[in-house]
Automatic annotation (TrEMBL):
Gene: ribG
Taxonomic path: Bacteria, Fusobacteriati, Fusobacteriota, Fusobacteriia, Fusobacteriales
Single GO term (MF): 5-amino-6-(5-phosphoribosylamino)uracil reductase activity
Coiled coil: none
Family matches, as InterPro entries: DHFR-like_dom_sf, RibDG_C
Protein name per its UniProtKB record: RibD/RibG domain protein
Superkingdom assignment: Bacteria
SUPFAM superfamilies reported for this sequence: Dihydrofolate reductase-like (SSF53597)
Pfam short name (any one): RibD_C
Amino acid sequence: MVKPMVVVGQLLKKIKELYHINTFTLCGGAEINAVFLKADLVDEISIVIGPVIDGNRNALTFVGTENTDGFPKYFKLKEVEKLDNNGVILRYIK
């Protein structure tokens, strides 16, 4: 079985070589976010918080994986932006 981090590395190499893309936005789910974070491929995190409460115990998480080796990861607050709808964007850098 191929390890996800190996596949991600190959994918990024092909994207760079074929399309000359050096930076992109990852809008994944908890599992793919965990793979990129474990491989130290995340330079910045943007979290949008809206003033809504779901209340669902089964809500999705930003990062989730069965194997927590390589965690926690630490980031530093870069900026806070207030949105028109009373939400905020928190931007963190590595």
